[in-house]
Amino acid sequence: MRLDKYLQLTKQFSKKEIQQLLKQHAITVNGNKAASLKQDVSKTDKVCLMGSRITEAPYFYLMVNKPAGILSALKDSHEKTIMDLIEHPRKDSLRIMGRLDRDTTGLMILTNDTRTIKRITLPQSHVEKEYEVTLRDPISKVAVQAFAEGLFIDQNVQLKPAELTILDDYHVKVIISEGRYHQIKKMFLSIHNQVLTLKRIRIHHLYLDDSLALGQYKCLDEKEIEQLTAK
Ligand code: URA
Asked: What's the CA angle centered on 204, arms 2 and 215, to 5 degrees?
């Protein structure tokens, strides 16, 4: 997030005041004088005004229990989106951390912390996502090994090792550490099975809160933010 936006979100200064403070070299980021308001800052940066840390957290994070049948998009001219579930004064600043298919349910995070979104969703970051899956056909035990070795999807793309836990013949849990388009569905197609229902229950160390009904959301508390953003 840009430094000027960060300072504005504290609601302590006007745009003009922020510009004056910059000219007066009164703003520091991690101990260095800020040279531009366009500079990028994140939650972990220490932004100070005349030596005092700006404490009010400009970032906020919503956990949504996504129902089936709605789009993971900010807006759509025809269909209901995840944003239609949200009523929040700072709703316009929210962005999506990792989309789900229309028919997938479960854990979605909306936040204005775009830098963390990039970090969590970048394929290179290998952040784990955990899903509960219902299958069309009984699962075979040999699938566990195939998932662990790295399945092939999209003709010849080999996936990273994934963890498959069999709950019963038709129910499994899968942990993946990349986020390719329709990945879980394609993984089961590659072993000649089919996903009937898919629910995301975890991103990184953060689990879906069981007390959230489908379509409900809540603000993450400090502990949950840490579970989501931990390096
Ligand atoms: N994998 C899928 O196939 N769909 C999702 O929505 C998420 C992961």
From this structure: 85
